[in-house]
Amino acid sequence: MERLTRFVVLHRWWVLLAWMVTALAGGFAAPRATAALTYDFSLPGQRGYETNRVIKETFGSGGDAAPVLLIDAHPAPERARRVAAAVEQALPGARVLSYADQASLLSADGHTGVVVVYPRITPGPEPYAAALPILTEVAAQQQVTVTGKDALVAQSGGDQGADVLVETIFGGAGALIVLLVVFGSALALMPLLIAAGSILTTFLIVWGLTGLTDISFIVQFLLALIGLGVAIDYALLIVTRWRAELGHGASPEQAVNRALATAGRSVFFSGVTVAVSLAALIALPVPFLRSVGFTGLLIPAISVLAALTLLPALLLVAGRRLDWPHRRGTDPESRLWRRIGTAVVRHRWISVTAAVTVLVALATPVSTIRLGQPTNASLASTGGDAGTAVTRLDTAGLGAGLTTPVEILTRDPAVAGEAVTGLPGVAAAMTWPAGPTGESLVDVWTSADTSTEKGAAAAARVRAAAEATGARVGGLPAGDADFVDAVYGNAGWVITLIVVVTTLLLMRALRSIVLPIKALILNAISLGAAYGITVWIWQDGHGTELLFDQRAAAAITTWVPIAVFAFLFGLSMDYEVFLLSRIREEHDNGHATDEATVHGVARTGRLVTSAALILFLAFISLAQVPTTEVKILATALALGIIIDATIVRGVLAPALVAALGRANWWAPHRRRAPQRTPTRTADPKPGGR
């Protein structure tokens, strides 16, 4: 760190020039990198995925692409044939079956008929981006209504995706407001400059990587929003320490040296911890998550590099000038957080008990978590004709699972159909004409939505029965089940890897055995609380209509929990490292454990709260995306950050440090740190250890 600081101080202008050139190149590369991202969710080697791939290659549609349904409120055989003919003419190559051909597509009361359409799939994020507008026009002419999973998503605006630039600007504006309050001067611009340089540089690297391998579209949001929060976090920590050193009479160069030697060290280890948690995704046998892992680790890596090189150069060149009108003092200590820290340390066991009780209560719903896609009812609650039509489908008794049927690929459709017909929860089945290979498709759908517990169980029974006949099984339900097996079946290895590497890093950073173990346990509790409250909101339906104006999804999207773990584990560990590093420093300066804890809370409280608020605003921005899956992800991340920055970091962590006393500092073969005379005496509890 000393050598790096010396280099930056001596070559500050060259450092600024290098970052300026890189950022400009990143600005050029960003839109090109975004355009080169892929929407591939492949699961090589998984039975359901491989079957879906064969179905799409053989029949040109289907597999993991759900059917489009045309709902006829005035069914008649001649109308069904006319609608089917109009669709076939408008969409050559589409597979079409109507209620005139399949009695199972006509309701028992004869008042609702369904025409099932599998359009040709087009490359891109939406398989029916070209077909849906045409089908909507045909439906209007034939006086029927378009619905189905894709139509429901399009109706809610989810197919429009999100403009990453707009989301980043929104998050940056919120961050600027917070930073102006924190610094009370134009120094608020400094962390934003670091974030801009980090994000643009990362996009430049990702653009290069897209020429070598497929990178998931999810990466663009992580680079922009997670990058914004992380880079500002690191810059905020260093700038705050730099101002404090100036206030103690140091020259700008001395202040930079001391800030990097202390806060810079914390930033380095925090960044490595975040990178490790994201890099662990590479161990999963899922290509798109692997791409998120090896590109996601660039976010903290580049942010740390910018914080340790670009930021010191900016502080030396323009720091004093930007620190105007200097409405806040240079001392980072917060009187509010000193009072909180004192109260927590004085009542340590009460604080521990209260915090753990709250966190366990928040985490309890996670025991009922169900992974899957949002239900029809949730998507329909946003309103529109597609929502009304899918509700009619359900109430007509045709089976809500028709929107996501199980597809059986077989050479003997009669045997497969007989094996699944009559199974509990199965509504009906229909057979498509044989394909060019001689194999046929049997579509089987459940009475309940496959995103519900009953529907998922029925789909699993269908899969087991069909595979017992030698048939292959695909469709969305099979794809989701395979995803859960591929990702969460290997989660133990990933978590073990993260825990081991993180523990070793924190042992090196904190020079303790107890503090890293405590930090990991608290992180696990914090993650459990984030998962639990997300399940309570989105799966159980408490507050979704009030907060998001739609019904509960009744399930948590399959990829959300692993993504939340990767991001929150690292981001939450940032706050632990910031707090514990400062407590460690105060203890090394000669303060007793209790006093060091109060000082650590008081001197990091405002900083961590501000950093958490900035990330919270970034995730709130992400929650404005109309896609339900993204809303669920943003909810978990936003609530997880707030829980960690308040209950865990503000109460539980300092209370446990105070409760453990001398045990915090034990480490085998530990070299005794040099003791310095404490600059203050403010032991919050007589006899503090």
UniProtKB/TrEMBL annotation:
<feature type="domain" description="SSD">
    <location>
        <begin position="175"/>
        <end position="317"/>
    </location>
</feature>
<dbReference type="GO" id="GO:0005886">
    <property type="term" value="C:plasma membrane"/>
</dbReference>
<feature type="transmembrane region" description="Helical">
    <location>
        <begin position="294"/>
        <end position="318"/>
    </location>
</feature>
<dbReference type="Pfam" id="PF03176">
    <property type="entry name" value="MMPL"/>
</dbReference>
<feature type="transmembrane region" description="Helical">
    <location>
        <begin position="190"/>
        <end position="209"/>
    </location>
</feature>
<feature type="transmembrane region" description="Helical">
    <location>
        <begin position="267"/>
        <end position="288"/>
    </location>
</feature>
<feature type="region of interest" description="Disordered">
    <location>
        <begin position="669"/>
        <end position="689"/>
    </location>
</feature>
<protein>
    <submittedName>
        <fullName>Putative drug exporter of the RND superfamily</fullName>
    </submittedName>
</protein>
<keyword id="KW-1133">Transmembrane helix</keyword>
<feature type="transmembrane region" description="Helical">
    <location>
        <begin position="551"/>
        <end position="572"/>
    </location>
</feature>
<dbReference type="InterPro" id="IPR000731">
    <property type="entry name" value="SSD"/>
</dbReference>
<feature type="transmembrane region" description="Helical">
    <location>
        <begin position="164"/>
        <end position="183"/>
    </location>
</feature>
<keyword id="KW-1003">Cell membrane</keyword>
<keyword id="KW-0812">Transmembrane</keyword>
<feature type="transmembrane region" description="Helical">
    <location>
        <begin position="519"/>
        <end position="539"/>
    </location>
</feature>
<feature type="transmembrane region" description="Helical">
    <location>
        <begin position="486"/>
        <end position="507"/>
    </location>
</feature>
<dbReference type="InterPro" id="IPR004869">
    <property type="entry name" value="MMPL_dom"/>
</dbReference>
<feature type="transmembrane region" description="Helical">
    <location>
        <begin position="607"/>
        <end position="626"/>
    </location>
</feature>
<feature type="transmembrane region" description="Helical">
    <location>
        <begin position="349"/>
        <end position="369"/>
    </location>
</feature>
<dbReference type="InterPro" id="IPR050545">
    <property type="entry name" value="Mycobact_MmpL"/>
</dbReference>
<feature type="transmembrane region" description="Helical">
    <location>
        <begin position="632"/>
        <end position="661"/>
    </location>
</feature>
<keyword id="KW-0472">Membrane</keyword>
<feature type="transmembrane region" description="Helical">
    <location>
        <begin position="215"/>
        <end position="239"/>
    </location>
</feature>
